[in-house]
Amino acid sequence: MDTVPLKLTERRDEEISARAHEFADELMRRRTVRDFSSKAIPPGVLEDCLRAAGSAPSGANLQPWHFAVVTSPALKNQIRQAAEGNEREFYDKRAPDRWLKSLAPLGTTASKPFLERAPALIAVFQKSSVTGPDGQDTATYYAKESVGIATGFLIAALHRAGLASLTHTPSPMAFLNSILNRPCSEKPFLLLVVGFPVENCSVPSINRQKLNQITSWH
Ligand code: IYR
Question: To test ligand 1's pocket by mutation, which of 80, 98, 169, 190 has the most ligand atoms within 8 angstroms of CB?
Answer without folding.
Answer: 169
